[in-house]
Write a structure and sequence with these properties.
This protein starts with a helix and ends with a helix. By secondary structure, it is of the alpha+beta class. The protein is elongated.
Length: 317
């Protein structure tokens, strides 16, 4: 069955690439043996639509053209399906190979693998992968949130979305209408940056706090999309990367190693506790809550109050 489908896809691709004018479904059915053997028009239509989608998923650019009589035809222009000369050196090829290994999601892994195959077929050098055998480290960006894929597609296609979002200090989610700009990974968590229509301002949303399904909405964006560097700076600032002062926290011994890595100073308190001075920026309260009873905020008072509010909200759930 797999061989038969591969042969059918190859035949369809050759027909679409070899024609100078759009071919109708009727003409394609008469040119490909597997389509001639379809039991009915409905069976052929289902088979053809699946094959067309599979070829597009593999990267073939298939155009749909309507003639003056209203009939629909299909073709794949060679100039639209031909890569320009590849001028990557071995180090650049190795970097692309490493980047392709980052994604764990099956959808993204397949796209990355397919892109590498096309580049190699077009002349990209086969670079020895230094990370393949000798390294104990393997690059991964974990994606566990169900909202990731629909938001990724919405960012790509510039489509507004709606979803229910629960703030860290709120017990119940609220619906948000957002024009998504980009997704950013920071400290192992995924964030969406975009324009919140309900609040009329840019906002950053942590994907793990999105409840239920992400739904696409029709219509164009109403706010200007900033460049990617500005968006990345917004995410880092919101999540706490930009520190404006320091905070003192008490941390249980042998815990909270990510906090220790950022500590400016560490002082032993006894009884299994230590005092850390760490950079304090927006979003630090959300990060500290993740360490639960192993962290106690000493100062400043506003940070301590924010952490207590978040813990109370979690306790109510």
């Amino acid at each position: 069955m797999a061989i038969a489908k591969a042969e059918r896809l190859m035949n369809l691709a050759l027909c679409l690439l070899g024609t100078r004018r759009p071919l109708s479904k009727r003409e394609l059915r008469g040119s490909i043996e597997a389509y001639l053997e379809a039991g009915s028009d409905d069976a052929f239509n289902r088979m053809f639509e699946r094959d067309k989608d599979d070829l597009r998923e593999l990267g073939l650019v298939i155009e749909t053209v309507e003639n003056l009589d209203g009939d629909t035809g299909y073709l794949a222009r060679r100039d639209s399906n031909r890569l320009p000369p590849i001028t990557l050196d071995a180090e650049e090829a190795a970097a692309l190979g490493l980047a392709a290994k980052v994604w764990q999601q099956a959808r993204l892994a397949g796209a990355a693998s397919g892109a590498l195959q096309k580049l190699r077929a077009a002349g990209m050098p086969e670079a020895e992968d230094a990370y393949e055998v000798h390294s104990a480290l393997e690059p991964r960006i974990p994606v566990h949130e169900a909202a990731f894929e629909p938001l990724m597609l919405a960012c790509r296609d510039r489509r507004p979305v709606t979803f229910d979002y629960r703030k860290a200090n709120s017990a119940h989610p609220e619906q948000r209408q957002v024009e998504p700009w980009t997704l950013e990974c920071w400290r192992g968590h995924w964030y969406l940056a975009g324009w919140d229509r309900g609040r009329g301002a840019e906002r950053v949303f942590r994907l793990s706090r999105i409840a239920g399904k992400v739904r696409s909405r029709a219509g164009a964006f109403t706010a200007e999309v900033p460049d990617v560097v500005t968006v990345r700076e917004t995410v880092e600032s919101w999540a706490g990367e930009t520190a404006t002062r320091t905070a003192l926290i008490r941390l249980r011994a042998d815990s909270g190693y990510p906090l220790r890595a950022r500590a400016i100073s560490v002082r032993e308190l006894g009884d299994g506790w230590e005092e850390l001075e760490i950079p304090y920026g927006h979003g630090l309260d959300a990060w500290l809550v993740e360490f639960g009873p192993d962290v106690v905020v000493s100062e400043p008072a506003d940070l301590r109050a924010d952490v207590v509010d978040r813990l109370r909200a979690v306790a109510k759930d």
